[in-house]
Amino acid sequence: MFNAESSSAMPDAGATSSHQPRKLRVLMLHGYTQSGSIFRSKTNALRKHLEKAFSPSSKKPAVPKNSKNDQQKHDDAAEYGGVELVYATAPIRLCAADVPGFEERVSTINGFPGQAAAYNAREAIDDQEELDAWGWWRKDYATGQYIEIEKGLDALASVLQSQGPFDGVIGFSQGAAAAGILASLLEPGRRGALARKKKELAEAGVEGMDSLTSFLRRDVSQSSAVPTEFEDGLIHPPLSFVVAYSGFIAPHPKYSAFYDPPIGTPTLHFIGSLDSVVEEQRSLALVEACRSGKEEHFGENTSKQEHPLSSPLPSTQNASTRSSSTSNHARLGKPRHRQAQDPQVIYHPGGHFVPSQRHYLDKLVQFVKENVVLDEPVES
Q1: Using the 8-state DSSP alphabet, how is residue 348 labeled?
Q2: Minimal CA–CA distance to 100: which of 20, 11, 174?
C-alpha cells in the first residue's frame, strides 16, 4: 500500500489580479510506525499556520520605513496562491514485531535474550496483527542496513510522478531522513556519485546502492545513453527546500553517496533538546551532511558553526534548475537566487515531536519564504 492525501488551501475565486500567484506545494513525510493521516493529525498547527501564512486573502503587513531590505520588502508585499500539503503514506506495512518496544515485550513473555532474538521470533509467534503503522524502510540490526529502502524510495518517486511537482518536503524522524535522501537524489550529479561510490565500495568488498531508475524518466531509464547530469533525466526538478524534524542520516557505508558530495538543497533542521528517540548527535550528522550553517537555540541565533564539508555540489538554486519538458512544472514557485545554501538548525526544549509553538512555526514560514518565490506569473 502506498497512498497520499492532500490538504489544500485554494485561492479565492473572487480575487482579481494581473496574474494568479502560484500555490505552494509541499510533500509531507511521516515517521516510522505512522501514516499520512496520522502525521496530518499531528501537524494540525503546522498545517493551519502555513495555510494562514500563504493564504490568498491574508492581509500583507505594512513595511516600516528603513526597517527592511529589498528582499524582505518583497516578502511582505508578496501575493500568495494558497498552499497544498500532500501527506504520503509509506509502502511498508509494519507488524507488532517492527514496533519499537516489541523486543522487550517478547523477552518478558518468552524469555528471549534481547532484540536479535525478538526479531528472529517475529515469524514464529502469534503477534502479526495488522496495524496502521508504516515505514519507508526497516532496519536490519545485525548488519545496520535498511531492509526494503529501495521500495520506500521507489514509492517516493511514484508520488513525485503522480502528485508532483513539489516546491519542497517536510519530514519527521524517519520521514526527515527520507526527505534528505529525496532531496539528494534530485540534485544534479547525484547519479554519477552513486555510480562512483558503488565502484569504490565494491573494491573494498562492500555493496553500494544501485542507481535508482525510478527517478529517471522512462525514455532515459530505457536508454543506453544516460545523461551525465542526473537532473537531465529526472522525473522531477530539484527541491527548493527541506525541513527536517528530528532527522538523521542512513549511516551504513552503502548509503554514503546520498551525502557525498554534501546535500546542497537548503535545509532547516529542528532538534529537540529532550529527544531520546533520535538523539542530538544523530540529527547533527544530517546537518553535517549538508552545507555549513548556523544554529539557533530556542529561536535565538547564538552561533555560526562551520562544518568541514568537501566536494560541494553545484548550486541547485538557480533559474535553470526549474526548467522541465513537462508543463506541469510551471505550477512550481521559483527558487531564490542564492550562492550559499547553509543549513539552519533550531533547537526546541522538547522531545520527539513537531513543535507547535508559534515561534517555531514562524521560523518555518520564514525559511520557506526565503527559498521560494510564489508570486510570479504562471506560464500558460
Answers
A1: E
A2: 174
Residue pair 266/315 in contact by the 8 Å Cβ criterion: no
**Site of grid cell 526494503:** 148
Residue 91: φ, ψ to 5°? -85, -10
Measured in degrees and rounded to the nearest 5, phi and psi for residue 334 equal -90, 140
Residue 99 and residue 133 in contact, taking contact as beta carbons nearer than 8 Å:
yes
Identify the helix (H) or strand (E) that includes residue 77. helix 70-77
Strands 138-139 and 146-147: antiparallel
- The residue length of the chain stands at 380
- Give me 245's grid cell: 524534524
Cα–Cα dist 309/244, whole Å: 19
Look at residue 279 and give its three-state secondary structure.
coil
**Do 80 and 374 form a contact (C-beta atoms < 8 A)?**
yes
- 301-317: pLDDT as tens digits: 333 333 332 233 333 33
Predicted confidence (pLDDT) per residue in 355-372, tens digit: 999 999 999 999 999 998
Amino acid at 196: R
Give the 3-state secondary structure of residue 239: coil
Q: Are 16 and 157 in contact (CB under 8 A)?
A: no
pTM given for the model: 0.76
- Tell me how far the alpha carbon of residue 275 is from its chain's centroid: 19
**Long-range CB pairs of 298-307, under 8 A, 24+ apart, other chains included:** 298/347, 298/348, 298/349, 299/346, 299/359, 299/360, 299/363
pLDDT in tens, 225-243: 444 333 557 789 999 999 9
Radius of gyration of the chain (CA): 21
